[in-house]
Hints:
Elements: H1 5-25, H2 35-47, H3 66-78, H4 86-98, H5 101-104, H6 107-112, E1 117-120, E2 128-132, E3 136-142, E4 146-147, E5 154-159, E6 168-173, E7 179-183, E8 189-201, E9 205-208, H7 209-246, E10 250-251, E11 254-255, H8 260-286, H9 291-320, H10 330-343, H11 348-359, H12 368-372
Parallel strand pairs: 1-5
Antiparallel strand pairs: 2-3, 3-8, 4-8, 5-6, 6-9, 7-8, 10-11
Amino acid sequence: MRRSPDQRDDDRLLREGARRFLEETCPWTPCPPDEAAQDAARREMAQLGWFGLGLPEALGGAGADALQALAIIEEAGRVLLRRSLAADVLVAPRLMRDVGGALASLAPGLAAGTVRFALVPENPGTGIGATRTGSGLRLDGRSALALDAGRATHWLVEAGGHSPNGAMLLCVEAHPAVVEMRRLIDGRTGAVLTFDGLALPAEAVLATGHEAVARMAEIRDCAVAALVADSYGALAAGLDLTVGYLNQRRQFGQTLGSFQAVQHLMADAFCDLETLRSLLLWTAAALDGEPAERRRAARTAKVTLGREGLAAASRLIQASGGIAMTEEYRVGHVYKRLQVAAGLHGGTEAQIRELATATLSPEGRPDDEASAA
């Protein structure tokens, strides 16, 4: 991704400011902060302009691109922030820019931090169906796991995405009665939403048909990009912590970092980390490109997260020894963070199948060497 000198300066200042704020205001602790402290931190994020960063200037935002939004999400991953920023920093501003209408009217609230979005993906098994009624819509079905849906004021809901005939993308005001809370292994919270004839106004529809299918695909790719950015930040912080530990801890009169086997472990972890970083940059650039390229980049990055990313986190635990398995040490939580990320929005094997389907023709790809012979 090519950046002008001015853009690189803006990127650097944004990243440095975000890192300084998060390390001072939201440092990682073994015990999760209370809700009041997290709400106060969110209000400060709004004052810093994070939620208006990606909004177009016509809606009072800064018009930042995907790379800058992902930089904030990456820094949140470094401190293992327990609330997801993907919907508010990346996805919702892009939808407001492209869809407009009733959704765009929520832009002031989003920028002020009073409106909070959550992404509600459709459950592949049960699905969510939206039926038109005389006064609006009726929503039925069960969602997949949605991060922070219990704290959101609005949900971006995928419905009927298996076919353009019934596909709808909806913006739904949160209804606590349909929320089943889930506590995840990395300390974050998610929810499964069960809709049983929930009545919605017609204005809740953001897109239908082929446009809805395209928008839902874009949202999923953006969500994957955010997961990779968050995981990269968590893994980078974990690597820094582990290297510092290895350079201080001594065995047999030497630091652990002086042993060749340990150096090999850290070298492999560093290479895996940089691979993830390269694919994150590709995905950030592809988010504003052609859908096929965007989808290929997001799926490739997600596969790398589920394989090389988790392998690198395992190496950090191996190098750190027993301390890494304690609740008071961050490295074990980094592994849990990546484990959750690897399973959201399609697991690794599912991403591989989709990537193969999108890349290979039904007849397969001819072998270059055999063709040349």
